[in-house]
Amino acid sequence: MRSLVVLSLACGARALKVVDAGVATVSKALPFENKDAFFVAPPTYYGVFDGVSAGPQSRLYASTLAKTACDTLNANAQKKWPEQTQLALSKATEAAKKYNGCSTAMLLKLDVDGMQPTARIYSLGDCQTLVLRKNIFKGGRYAVAAATTAKLHPENGAPYQFGGGKKFQSDEIADGEDFNFKVSAGDILLAFTDGVGDNMKPEEIEELVCRNFEESAEELASTLVAAARERRAVDDDCTAVAVKLGDGDWVGGTMAAQTTPTDSAALQNAAQGFFKSFTSSE
After folding, report:
1. How far is CA 89 from CA 100, 162, 182, 256, in A?
2. Are 201 and 133 in contact (CB under 8 A)?
3. Distances (CA, A) of 54 to 35, 152, 222
4. Which CATH architecture does the domain made up of 14-277 adopt?
5. DSSP assignment of 167-201, as one string?
6. Each residue's pLDDT tens digit, 199-254
7. Minimal CA–CA distance to 170: which of 56, 73, 63, 55?
């Protein structure tokens, strides 16, 4: 009888799903000078990349990493995560090597179909992912349940990073670190570049999520990067990806993959925004 009850409960449970995902990025300068990059390919794959300011082509370098990694992960979904990351980053660094720039990298895979849903994360450098969960010991408020850690070179404190061109050295794919976090319904995942992490303490991000968790994922990401830019203790580009987990249906916008706009697209978007504001003021 007990086994029948357990089976009944298991069959009645609703499967965990990604119900919303969004991204926001804010440049410290003009939009087409933003050296951060990202991809969002719901429901499974996400990534953030922090192009290093010292590299004249770090925007191109980081955005090439993002697009190539996104395409490769989706094309090799049947492979295990370590194989996926190795293949995706091998192809990405090869595609980007012609650019005189460098970038950190963080890849995130959500596996919500197994008995124990997990977030699998590969990180090289100082981008960060937080899993925020309602904590009964904190009055049901959102609190950090799991967090990645930065990997820095001990001799100078610089983050590990990939590099291209003739000027920049590159760390190895094997230098990255893997994280495996359990996730559940109601969790909110935030992946962001150091422009966010250097300006917002974890407890401040917890408070921001507690105030704004009912926002859409895109709105939540926008709220986070706006708060980081307003703080400006470290003047940097800020990018954040937000993902919401639940047991309901998808409530976000398009599920098509989004990647960083190319330089030409960013220029076009900036020009369109300028002329739109100009005409609307007449």
Report:
1. 17, 10, 24, 21
2. no
3. 10, 17, 26
4. 4-Layer Sandwich (3.60)
5. T-----GGGSEEEEEE--TT-EEEEE-HHHHTTS-
6. 999 999 999 999 999 999 999 999 999 999 999 999 999 999 999 999 999 999 88
7. 55
